[in-house]
Amino acid sequence: MDKDIRKSRIGIDARFYGPLGKGLGRYVQEIVDRVIRLQAANEPEIEFVIFLSPGNYEEYVCPNSNVRKVLVPQRWYSWREQVIFPIILRREKLSLIHFPHFNVPLLTPSPFIVTIHDLILTKFPSRRASMLPPLLYWIKQAAYRLVVRTAVRRAKAIIAVSEFTKKDIIEQFSASPAKIFITYEGVVDFNRTENIEEKGASILGEYGISRPYLLYVGNAYPHKNLSRLLSSYLQVRKILPDLSLVMVGKNDYFYQRVRAEAQQLTLAVVMNGQGKIIFPGYVPDEELGNLYRNALLYVFPSLYEGFGLPPLEAMSCSCPVASSNQASLPEILGEAATYFDPYDVSNMSAIISDLAVDEKRREEMISAGREHIKKFSWQRCAEQTLAIYLQIISHNAKR
Questions:
Q1: Which of 45, 67, 262, 399 could form a disulfide with 62 if both were Cys (CB 3.0 to 4.6 A apart)?
Q2: Where are the domains of the chain?
Q3: Could you give the CA distance from residue 189 to residue 262 in angstroms, rounded to a whole number?
């Protein structure tokens, strides 16, 4: 390896690291942990500087002497992030920094790479997706567009998590295709839990869940289309009155809104049988696998996804998947899922009902899903990401 590369100092903005950052936190954690291990095995002279937030700084332990952590008190998406974080970065004299999300400070002094997972805020700029007053919301929207546009223009490389996202970036921001790299995300191994069968029944009982049930895992932002999922479920329930719907996600403002809607809908129909809508809140990974494994079907009604990790997690746990046919989902889920039109409640209901009563078809989907998830590996994602780091550093060193 070139001696200039060996002397390099690579920064990673890991403020989202771990559960603190929800789905993005998983991506950040997998990249940080695996890239550092990969580089330590090959050329330990490269130094890594890991930037962390107050919520994860103490929990993160530097794995070797070539890794140093730096506290960044400034919260993401804040004006302090834009003003103060660049000052912290300047002190570190980095050869390169990786921002795993679009929120790149406009005044970033170092060469950087940015990962763009999706452009949801430009596709669905809805007031329903925010608790801010109207004026502040539209100011935030304008700032978002400025930050993303500047990041796309200044980045030495852009990592997109799907071909769909790459196309979106090119179309919306006229980005050069040559500097966009695609790295598919990986899937967590939920099957490492010991005594899976024994623990499964116990965990379901703790959350008040009884089989059979449909499962949704994810946040409750408007583009997730959960209102139509609720309406669809009530149609399906007329055919399968004992079928429950379990919706897993942190009980935040958006889930509270879905809960209220669910309550209104269920009061408006005659609830025969045992089926019900269950909101267990946040479920940790060690228990989430059992919810996937015991579900009759995982349903993903989203209107827009840059990647779509939960349905792949479901497949890894031998759970058949019924998915929206929008955005990146057909690319990511391939022929292992069955698709519906997420804008059409009747179509969604028909697909769910057909799969719910067709055991043979579900078994075929489970088998296809197990094979399909072999395409997605966090280790391969990390290897590709590290290769991009080294390629950019090598190119900069020769200039």
A1: 67
A2: 3-186+377-398, 190-375
A3: 32
Element (H, E) at 219: none
The pLDDT of residue 271 is 47
Neighbours of 20 (CB within 10 A): 17
What is the per-residue pLDDT across 331-362, written as a single tens digit (0 to 9) for each?
Answer: 999 999 999 999 999 999 999 999 999 999 99
Question: Nearest-CA neighbor of 240 among 159, 67, 357?
Answer: 357
Quick: pLDDT tens for 144-180.
889 999 999 999 999 999 999 999 999 999 999 999 9
Which amino acid, one-letter code, is at 269?
Answer: V
| Residue 8 contacts residue 96 (beta carbons within 8 Å) | yes
Cα gap 175→155, rounded to integer Å: 10
Alpha-carbon dihedral angle through residues 30, 15, 183, 216, given to the nearest 10 degrees: 70
Task: Report the CATH architecture of 3-186+377-398.
Answer: 3-Layer(aba) Sandwich (3.40)
Which residue blocks in the chain are alpha helix, DSSP H? 3-6, 22-42, 79-83, 85-92, 120-123, 134-154, 163-173, 196-206, 226-239, 253-267, 285-294, 309-316, 329-333, 345-357, 359-372, 378-398
Number of H helices, E strands in the chain: 16, 13
Question: How many other CB atoms are there within 10 angstroms of residue 357's CB atom?
Answer: 12
What is the four-CA torsion angle of 340, 343, 347, 349, rounded to 10 degrees?
A: 90
Burial of 245 (0-12, 13-18, 19+ CB in 10 A): buried
- Name the residue among 81, 115, 74, 109 with its Cα closest to residue 94: 109
| Same fold for the pair 3-186+377-398 and 190-375 | yes
How is residue 132 annotated by DSSP?
S
Q: Which residue has the higher pLDDT, 168 or 266?
A: 168
User: 285-294 vs 196-206: helix axis angle to the nearest 10?
Assistant: 90
> Tokens representing 4?
């200039």
What's the confidence (pLDDT) of residue 78? 86
Instruction: In whole angstroms, give the CA distance from residue 377 to residue 183.
Output: 10
